[in-house]
Amino acid sequence: MSHPQSNHRAPRPSRPRRLRTPPMNDAPTRSSAPAATGPRRTVELDADEALRLLAGVPLGRIVFTRQALPAIRPVNHIVDDGQIVIRTHESGALLLSTREAGSRGVVVAYEADDIDMTTRLGWSTVVTGYCHLVTDPDDLARYERLLTPWSDRTMDQVVRIRPDLVTGIRLVEAR
After folding, report:
1. Going from the N-terminus, what domains does the chain have, and what CATH number goes with each?
2. CA–CA dist 35, 13 (Å, integer)
3. Are 116 and 41 in contact (CB under 8 A)?
4. Cα 83 to the chain's mean position, in Å?
5. What is the pLDDT of residues 50-96, one digit of tens each?
6. How far is it, in rounded angstroms, from Cα 76 to Cα 79?
7. Backbone φ, ψ for residue 138 (5° rounding)
């Protein structure tokens, strides 16, 4: 049996979308110092210094597993008694993973940095540990007072990361 010819063509496979990357000289800078011209030396930070630096900045990136793949979200945080505290929303992927893990918690990484784009000096820290849902009403109320989310979403849940491994580097001028 023959089929009448159709004017419809099979859809073309879509091409990967190319993202426009702005030139590096358009990147925001925080320094009026001359631009760096050479490589930087990397100095390892001890865990206490790395955690102290992380506590001094308001923003980091949480890394967790979503559908068996790594997911990364920028979030603001506080450090309380050596633990990283962030607020999240009820339907957030991190909250769902944390709830599924139960009392054992879910393994996450948390990264924060402060690197000057002009001088190329600064630091970066990574904390790896278990993330747990905060359920104590007094703790929840305290964290809601101390930590104001930057997002316009309702962030009515709180999670806490207990660091098991804290690493960091400082970028300094090469000698």
Report:
1. 46-173 (2.30.110.10)
2. 44
3. no
4. 15
5. 999 999 999 999 999 888 889 999 999 999 999 999 998 777 788 77
6. 10
7. -65, -40
Contact 75, 62 (CB under 8 A): yes
Q: b/e string for 46-58 if b means 16 or more Cβ within 10 A?
A: eeeebbebbbeee
Dihedral Cα 29, 31, 34, 36, nearest 10 deg: -60
Residue 162 burial (CB < 10 Å; 0-12/13-18/19+)? Answer: middle
Tell me which amino acid residue 24 is: M
Is the entire prediction scored with pTM above 0.85?
no
CA angle 8, 11, 16 (to 5 degrees): 160
* 119 has pLDDT over 70: yes
State the Rg of the chain over Cα: 22
